[in-house]
Amino acid sequence: MTGGQTTLDLRALKYFPFGTPSRRLHLVVEFFNIFNHPNVTQINPVFGMNSKPIAGFGARQIQFSLDFEF
User: Fold this and answer.
1) By percentage, how much of the chain surpasses pLDDT 90?
2) CA 43 to CA 54: how far, in whole Å?
3) pLDDT of 22-48, one tens digit each?
4) Domain segments of the chain: what residues?
5) Distances from the Cα of 63 to the Cα of 32, 35, 43, 58, angstroms
6) Which of 10, 27, 28, 70 has its CA at 20 to 30 Å from residue 42's CA atom?
7) CA angle (11, 13, 14) in 5-degree steps
8) Under DSSP, is residue 25 helix (H, G, I), strand (E, B) or coil?
9) Cα→Cα distances 1→39, 43, 59, Å
10) Quick one: CA torsion of 62, 63, 66, 67, rounded to 10 degrees?
11) How far apart are CA 44 and CA 48, in angstroms?
12) Per-residue pLDDT at 12
């Protein structure tokens, strides 16, 4: 079985002024493997034509962060 790995990541950032112009609050959200495409890294060849994937990586992940710049 041949095939490539597919993943799409997205990062969104919003700045909010906080008092003086040099102070800002950053709200960040990051999406990894946004379409949750299965990326198989290992296949069990014992079953021949019915070989099954036994290892993979890259399940969808979402990460939030809040940063204060001063």
Assistant:
1) 37
2) 5
3) 999 999 999 998 888 777 777 777 766
4) 10-69
5) 8, 15, 30, 14
6) 10
7) 160
8) strand
9) 13, 8, 21
10) -130
11) 9
12) 97
Position 61: which residue type? Q
Higher per-residue confidence, 49 vs 34: 34
Cα angle 30, 32, 33 (rounded to 5 degrees) comes to: 145
Of 59, 66, 61, the C-alpha closest to 26 is 66
What's the pLDDT score for residue 1? 42
Residue 14: HSE in the Cβ half-sphere, 13 Å Cα cutoff: 4
Q: CB neighbours (10 Å) of residue 15?
A: 11
CA distance 48 to 41: 17
Cβ atoms within 10 Å of 14's Cβ, excluding its own: 9
Give the residue-averaged pLDDT of 56-67: 87
